[in-house]
Specification:
The protein has a single domain, classed as Rossmann fold. Strand 1 (3-8), helix 1 (16-30) and strand 2 (34-38) form a beta-alpha-beta unit. The chain has helices spanning 16-30, 50-54, 59-69, 87-97, 131-143, 171-191; strands at residues 3-8, 34-38, 73-78, 117-123, 147-148, 153-155. The chain is built from six helices and six strands; from the N terminus they run E-H-E-H-H-E-H-E-H-E-E-H. Helix 3 (59-69) crosses helix 4 (87-97). The protein is α/β, with parallel strands linked by helices. Strands 1, 2, 3, 4, 5 and 6 form a six-stranded parallel sheet that branches. It starts with a strand and ends with a helix. The structure holds flavin mononucleotide. Flavin mononucleotide (FMN) binds at residues 10, 12, 15-17, 79-83, 124, 126, 130.
Length: 192
């Protein structure tokens, strides 16, 4: 059973990307993955500041590193802000990639990232579905030594895409999301 971590780069209550992540979690579980759906709002992580870090890495950053490290495959649902990914997502990744000096495990900054298979999705009410955020997130994840799945999906017109229960209404959308999930799980099995 592949352990898959799913999270969205938004903490907004009615976030399209949080809803998309919920769909991914359900569909990946049905496909046989052992899914952890992480809500970034459950982590108490401040804005990155090296002076703050010098006083001690926040406990939830260590928790985040542990969660990431425990999952060989991840799927990230990315909102688009100003043609890129959100500050929340960047801040989360920056903290997770920052080495903890002298720590027996986390002194290695590559540890939670290296060799992970990462699938990228986005959702926006715009016509491009947040696709431009993925074009920035892709090199960021590769720079962190992740293997980014070539199949990606950007959900456009997101305000019309979900039913009242938060599930994707269109079979075509579900098919596109499933294709990313399947490729991530396929690759994770082969790299294991
Ligand atoms: C500062 C800011 C910049 C934005 N820029 C874009 C953009 O470049 N492209 C886009 O499609 N949507 C843009 N949006 C709209 C977001 O896609 C929209 O707020 C979306 O709902 C955010 O994702 P979420 O629903 O998962 O929170 C922007 C929103 C904000 C607050």
């Amino acid at each position: 059973m592949t352990k898959l971590l799913v999270f969205a780069g938004s903490t907004r209550q009615h976030s399209f990307n949080r809803r998309l992540a919920h769909n991914v979690a359900e569909m990946a579980s049905a496909a046989g993955a052992q899914v952890t759906h992480l809500e970034l709002s459950t982590l108490d992580i401040p804005l990155y500041n090296a002076d703050l870090e010098a006083q001690g890495t926040p406990p939830d950053v260590i928790r985040l590193k542990e969660i990431m490290d425990a999952h060989p495959a991840w799927i990230i649902c990315s909102p688009e802000y100003n043609g890129s990914y959100t500050g929340l997502l960047k801040n989360t990744i920056d903290w997770a990639s920052s080495p903890v000096k002298g720590h027996p495990v986390w002194a290695n900054d590559r540890k939670p990232f290296e060799g992970k298979i990462v699938g990228l999705l986005s959702a926006s009410n715009g016509a491009l579905g947040g696709l431009r955020s993925l074009s920035h997130l892709n090199p960021l994840m590769q720079n962190a030594q992740c293997w980014v799945a070539p199949k990606q999906f950007a959900l456009s017109r997101a305000s019309e895409a979900f039913d009242d229960a938060g599930l994707l209404k269109s079979e075509a959308h579900r098919h596109s999301v499933q294709a990313v999930i399947d490729q991530v799980l396929w690759a994770a099995k082969r790299l294991a």
